[in-house]
Amino acid sequence: MALIEQLVAKAKSNKQRIVLPEGTEERTLKAADRVLAEGIADLILLGDPEEIKELAAQHNLQHIAKATLIDPRNHAKKEEYAQLLAQLRAKKGVTIESARSIVENPLYLGSLIIKSGDADGQLAGARNTTGDVLRPALQIIKTQPGITCVSGAMILITQAHEYGSDGVVVMGDVAVTPVPDANQLAQIAVCSSDTARAVAGVEPRVAMLSFSTYGSAKHEDVDKVVEALHLAKEMRPELMIDGELQADAALVPKVGKLKAPTSPVAGQANVLVVPRLEVGNIGYKLVERLGHAEAIGPILQGIARPVNDLSRGCCVEDIYKMIAITAVQAIAAKEQN
After folding, report:
1. N or C terminus: which one in the chain shows less Cβ crowding within 10 Å?
2. Mean pLDDT throughout 214-237?
């Protein structure tokens, strides 16, 4: 069974409530209709209910009626959510009057619905920037215990079945933190390992990547990776992780044995933690385009409840997959608590 089919099956087995703040966006509605038709998740669409219904009729979307439709400007829990926001952001100067206005923003409303326990995850970004999607989530839902750094992982499904886990490799960070320090890099490693287990369905073997393997080069950037490795081991002693490793030493068994013969990870890594964002972003796109790999994500990590961000150039299929992934993350988050 292909990975996406596995994720869909898992989501169906334990349906989660996923908020879609961009409820009047055409691609989002089409993906939502498919999700509802297949019973993958219970969906909450934010937007003018009449506009949503008109768009659904226009595009012959017959299953949107199964979703919960909430008008951000006028709904039964508006005051309750405004009070919650004012309470959470009081130290930042948010009054109840300003909160009543802020909760009409669908991205803030979605995060408040999750915070109050009325939903399990959120997906947006077809119309909004990453910053706009993340800001309410970080202010309201906040990060996981012990995590201060939000990051994004990409699942790469390649035809190179001899590498990773039958060709599946998780790479992070590819989306959020431009130049992580050692502590942030350690958090990215731990969160990427959780994504590998929860979403990719593999037992993580984490390689902290560098242009050096076991001290073959000397540089402050290498020192940062080594420090991050020690911090990650302190955070998660049971995690199979090693570094610093060059990419070939991490992935290729012969090279791993040659360059790092004592490593428990070299030559068999399935989670690649890159030292900075530009490496991850460039790297996954090269693998995707030149290696004809399927790239799924980015999957946001580190938030207490799953909130995922779409590319504004996404297609219906991307949104469909990310709803299933968000649901699976929500299942994992509940299992960890």
Report:
1. C
2. 95
Nearest 5°: the CA angle 336, 12, 270 is: 55
* Positive/negative CA dihedral, 290, 293, 296, 300: negative
Q: 240: how many CB neighbours lie within 10 A of its CB?
A: 17
Cβ neighbours for 282, distance < 8 A, ≥ 6 positions apart: none
d(Cα 159, Cα 162) in Å, to the nearest integer?
Answer: 9
Q: By 3-state DSSP, what share of the chain in percent is helix, strand and coil, each rounded to 5?
A: 50, 15, 35
The number of beta carbons lying within 10 Å of the beta carbon of residue 215 is 9
Rounded Cα–Cα distance for residues 252 and 256 (Å): 6
Output b/e per residue, 73-99; b: 16+ Cβ within 10 A.
Answer: eebebbeebbebbbebbeeeebeeeeb
User: 215 or 108: which carries more pLDDT confidence?
Assistant: 108
Contacts of 288 (CB under 8 A, 6+ apart): 156, 294, 295
95-144 tens-digit pLDDT: 999 999 999 999 999 999 999 999 999 999 999 988 899 999 999 999 99
